[in-house]
Design brief:
This protein is an alpha+beta fold. The chain has three helices and eleven strands, in the order H-E-E-H-E-E-E-E-E-E-E-E-E-H. The N and C termini lie far apart (106 Å). The mean pLDDT is 83.
């Protein structure tokens, strides 16, 4: 082989390697194994792992089964599509307009009262609750089905309601 042929082969191999597809690192993420309807609580059989490029994965994507198990879907999910954190919520334990037991605790004292939820919420969600006796709104955290915990700060700083006409 001549020197010219060797140089041509070296240049061609360098050019080819520059345009070759780079090795893409992948990560396994949790995706729906089948179509899931809105409002469904996700179980282990509803999920599968799918490899995606690392560059496509971000913090808003559900990566592990544990991050999605037991959560309720906010929208319908298609099989194989990526699940965003915003697509899931805690299962609804308190419905809007439902009567709830409000618990107020202070050192050495626990008070309970009946209230009406002004929003729906799952465990750990903060919702507004109306005290039907005083017509005051307080912020409360959902503890369990039909039960909310009112913080001492929200009970003290709750704004006074606008006077309502009584019939």
């Amino acid at each position: 082989m001549t020197m010219r042929t060797v140089l041509v082969l070296i240049i061609c191999s360098l050019a080819f390697s520059a345009f070759a597809a780079p090795d893409v690192e992948e990560i396994d993420v949790a995706v729906p194994a089948h179509d899931i309807a809105r409002g469904t609580v996700i179980g282990e059989s509803d999920l599968a792992y799918k490899p995606i490029p690392v560059l496509r994965a971000n913090t808003s994507i559900v990566r592990a089964f544990a991050d999605a198990l037991g959560k309720e879907t906010r929208r319908a999910l298609r099989a194989g599509e990526l699940i965003r954190e915003s697509d899931l919520k805690h299962p609804t334990l308190v419905a809007k307009g439902a009567n709830v037991t409000m618990i107020f605790e202070a050192p050495g004292m626990q008070l309970t009262a009946l209230g009406r939820a002004l929003a729906e919420g799952g465990e750990g969600d903060s919702i507004a609750v109306l005290n039907p006796t005083s017509y005051r709104q307080v912020s409360a955290v959902v503890v369990s089905a039909g039960t909310v915990r009112v913080s001492a700060l929200s009970a003290i700083t709750a704004p006074k309601p606008v006077a309502q006409a009584r019939r």
